[in-house]
Amino acid sequence: MDRLKEKFAAKALPLADEIKTLIKEHGHIVLGSYTIEQVYHGMKGMIGMVTETSKLDSEEGIRFRGYSIPELRQKLPRGSGGENLPEGIFYLLLTGDLPTEEDAREVSNAWARRSHVPKHVFDMLDSLPKGTHPMTQFSLAILAMQTESNFAAAYRKGINKKQYWDPMFEDVMNCIARLPRIAAYIYRRTYKGGVHIEPDPKLDWGANFAHMLGFDDDGMKALMRLYLTIHVDHEGGNVSAHATHLVGSALSDAYYSLSAGMNGLAGPLHGLANQEVVRWIYDLRTHYGEKMPTKEDIADYVKKTLAEGRVVPGYGHAVLRKTDPRYIAQMEFAQTHLADDELFKIVQMLYEVVPEILKSTGKIKNPWPNVDAHSGVLLIHYGLTEYDFYTVLFGVSRAIGVLTSLLWDRALGHPIERPGSVTTDWMKAQIEKAKATA
Ligand code: CMX
Fold it and tell me: 235 with 55: CB under 8 angstroms?
């Protein structure tokens, strides 16, 4: 068994026993109560699952295994160009421990070894119309890899449930290893005439991804490492993580589960917002005849968007109540590498203008920018301008979080998820009961 797999087993299997005892002895403790509004409004704030890899605090932002983004920027191993290696955050999410440089390198090597994508996946992609949205292609390609599932094969043979984690580990490692190749293939077939670029096994995972997309400059490689690190995980309740967890709870394998999660990420209120932000900024520029808009212009355009009953993409969040630390990390990158970029200046102006307008509506709970408000502008600066592709980049990164989490689900023996649901008539009956006892 390889070192990482052994380490994972040594961490996860004792916790599985501990959780069994915890439920037996303390399972009756009440955690909280919830309201009718929460049930109708997407279960926000209701504790409904356990996710070991990360925890989101509404004021502080995301913590990965207890570490904030600024802390991790100091503590995780870095690639050339100074940005953290996504291999490092994978190691942290998987084991709960900070990786050494050697640990991150081992993950890099393991992913390079496992990165071969079966030919039928490329054949399937080539059979799709060129105009198929990149996220549709990405989700289908992940599903097409299901033929490779070690977990599905082991289940068919009759594996003991205590061993589920073992073939799941293999699937998770293989799947993550192959995603950059698949994503790059989608990009090159959609936008670069089907001229593909072979992987370079000497490069780390993020740099190799940039290389296969067709970007060999150090700036883009550094950006890719940053991008793939900060988008990995956002606790368990967001749509992509929850969909992956939910589908996986039926013992669907990693490929079925991740494909489901990616279908959720493709929604404009979730990951697709990164493409919508750029589209919205381009529309704004066209609206003002391509001149640099003033703050007043931007304010008017935001008000127009709201008046049309549309959302301002890149702003707001279901949990966060302050500026997303992932936005700040990207802003700092821009300040260092592209301070004079015109689109970056517009993004900065939006940051000054949008929150006040959103606050003034009186209903938007978080007027601050989220991760998606910034990413597109950085990618455009380095030449990746095809914004319909951006959510695929998000998906490659998010796979790290949701799949490590799914692996923990299997190791901890989490059961099938099956929340209760009610009708509005049932709700009305509860309201009558509450009135009668008041
Ligand atoms: N622009 C306009 N209206 C907004 C808004 C925004 N950026 N954010 C919230 N609102 C509106 C909601 O649509 C809702 O309106 P109604 O009461 O008319 O239905 C009201 O404000 C209250 O919403 P909320 O409780 O503040 O926010 P939700 O938890 O319901 O939604 C989110 C959160 C992210 C979907 C929402 O803020 C939004 O649509 N933002 C724009 C899209 C976006 O950037 N999504 C990416 C999020 C990060 C990610 O997952 O990648």
Answer: yes
Q: Is 413 buried (19+), middle (13-18) or exposed (0-12) by CB count in 10 A?
A: middle
Whether the per-residue pLDDT at 1 is higher than 70: the answer is no
Does ligand 1 have an atom closer than 6 angstroms to the CB of 316?
Answer: yes
370 lines ligand 1 (CB under 6 A): yes
pTM: 0.97
Residue range 211-216: mean pLDDT, rounded: 98
What is the residue with the minimal CA distance to atom 14 of ligand 1? 364
- Secondary structure of the chain in the HEC alphabet? CCHHHHHHHHHHHHHHHHHHHHHHHHCCCCCCCCCHHHHHCCCCCCCCCCCCCEEEECCCEEEECCEEHHHHHHHCCECCCCCECHHHHHHHHHHCCCCCHHHHHHHHHHHHHCCCCCHHHHHHHHCCCCCCCHHHHHHHHHHHHHHHCHHHHHHHHCCCHHHCHHHHHHHHHHHHHHHHHHHHHHHHHHHCCCCCCCCCCCCCHHHHHHHHHCCCCHHHHHHHHHHHHHCCCCCCCCHHHHHHHHHHCCCCCHHHHHHHHHHHHCCCCCCCHHHHHHHHHHHHHHHCCCCCCCHHHHHHHHHHHHHCCCCCCCECCCCCCCCCHHHHHHHHHHHHHCCCCHHHHHHHHHHHHHHHHHHHCCCCCCCCECCHHHHHHHHHHCCCCCHHHHHHHHHHHHHHHHHHHHHHHHHHCCCCCCCCCCCHHHHHHHHHHHHHHC
Q: How far apart are CA 57 and CA 107, in angstroms?
A: 29
The 10s digit of each residue's pLDDT in 381-413 is 999 999 999 999 999 999 999 999 999 999 999
- In DSSP terms, 64 is beta-bridged to 54, 67
Q: Are 205 and 287 in contact (CB under 8 A)?
A: no
**HSE-CB for 256 with a 13 A CA cutoff:** 14
Domains in the chain: ranges and CATH: 273-381 (1.10.230.10)
* Ligand 1 pocket: which of 315, 326, 394 to mutate (most atoms within 8 A of CB): 315
Structure tokens at 135: 């996220």
Judged against a pLDDT cut of 90, whether residue 82 lies above it is answered with no
Nearest atom in ligand 1 to the alpha carbon of residue 318 is 29
